[in-house]
Design brief:
Number of strands: 0
Helix content: over 70%
Order of helices and strands: HH
Number of helices: 2
Structural class: mainly alpha
Number of domains: 1
Largest sheet: none
Radius of gyration: 35 Å
C-alpha cells in the first residue's frame, strides 16, 4: 500500500464520518418537531371531543330549562299538556 492509497481511504472514511454526523444532527433536529406534532394532534383530538361534549351539554341544559319553564307555566295556567308531550319526546331522544 502506498501513501496515496492510504490518503484515499482516509478521505473516504472522513467523508463517510462527516455524512454520518450530518445525518445524526438532522435526526436530532427532527425529534422535537415530531414530538410537538404528536402533542398538537393529541390536543386537537381532545379539543374536538370537548367541543362535541359541550354541545351535548348545551342541548341538555336547554331541555332542562324548557322543562322547568313548562312546569312553571303549567302551574300558573294549568295548560300545556301537549308541550309536555313534545318536551318528553325531545328528552327521550337525548337520553336514549
Amino acid at each position: 500500500m502506498n501513501i496515496e492509497t492510504v490518503k484515499s481511504i482516509g478521505a473516504i472514511l472522513s467523508l463517510v464520518l462527516s455524512l454520518w454526523a450530518v445525518y445524526k444532527v438532522l435526526i436530532e433536529i427532527q425529534e422535537p418537531r415530531k414530538a410537538l406534532e404528536k402533542k398538537v394532534e393529541t390536543l386537537d383530538k381532545w379539543h374536538r371531543e370537548d367541543h362535541d361534549r359541550m354541545k351535548e351539554m348545551e342541548e341538555q341544559q336547554k331541555l332542562m330549562l324548557k322543562s322547568l319553564y313548562l312546569l312553571i307555566e303549567h302551574e300558573i295556567t294549568g295548560n300545556g299538556i301537549t308541550d309536555f308531550k313534545e318536551i318528553k319526546s325531545e328528552i327521550e331522544r337525548v337520553i336514549f
